[in-house]
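Write out structure tokens for Cytochrome C.
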Amino acid sequence: MSRLPIERRNAPSQRELLMNRKLTRIVALTLWGCLSAAAMPPRLSIAQQSVTDTNASIAAHRVPTQHLPNAVQVSSQVISGGLPEGEQAFAELQSLGIKTIISVDGAQPDVEMAKRFGLRYVHLPHGYNGISTERTQELAKAVRVLESPIYIHCHHGKHRSPAAAAVACIAAGQIPAADATAILELAGTSRNYQGLYRAAIAAQPIASTTLDALEVDYKSKVDPPPMVEQMIAIEHAHDHLKQFAADAWKASPKHPDLDPAHEALLLREHFTEMLRGEIERQSPEAFLESIRDSRDAAAGLEAAIRSGLPHRARQAFVNRIQANCVACHRRFRDVPLSE
């Protein structure tokens, strides 16, 4: 076999050697950069960081937000928090990547505002005394089948929503049952709400076959019972008055349209409404006594504000109403469902 002739070449010059070395360095740096970029994950938004892996179990942590009270990441798919109020709050939900909002509060959700930002609202209210088996199953199926990420809220985001989120995520198999207490403590859930703690601690994964067979018509709004409706109105007026007291009875920049005397008047009327009709007929006398005293205190607060009495006099009425609320809740509202 004949060999092919080998082309004879002159040895490379010193200049060629330097150029080759420089080119080799450039190629090596370029390849290193490409490989590093390929190896490093892309920067993610808050929502992407939280919800990229639907099966990952994460440690519960606070979510930094400006317009969403007490936001806590409960699972890779679920954030718990307080009521979103106004365009800025819904815009922040949208920026977090939220697709579905679940309200466990009794108040009517702002469905129209949610639609403006492409969000779906689902209303699954429950009380402070715990979460029923039926509601647990509905919440578990919701976080399993509704478009995620999901934001679950109550009013303040401290008690009902973290309990609901923990129960839902545990029952749906998204987080370990052992995480329940830590989630409630992180959110600041008061130990006075024994029913909420019991519901969270007792939560266990529900079989996929059970959730698959469960038929739920998820509505954007449900009508609360008369008692719940009045309690919601009382809570809102009371919250406004407590904020006025904390701000030395000055107008709030957040709610410049609110007037303290008018809020006291509304609170008095809400308490008065509790003493009429079905609520009065079905309530125990001890409960009605607390409502009557709170009504009188609200009337005294209104008079104190209109007559220009100093802060100390007004605060005495606020404290009296607050004490009645705490005692009443402990005796009647927060009793666990199992008792």
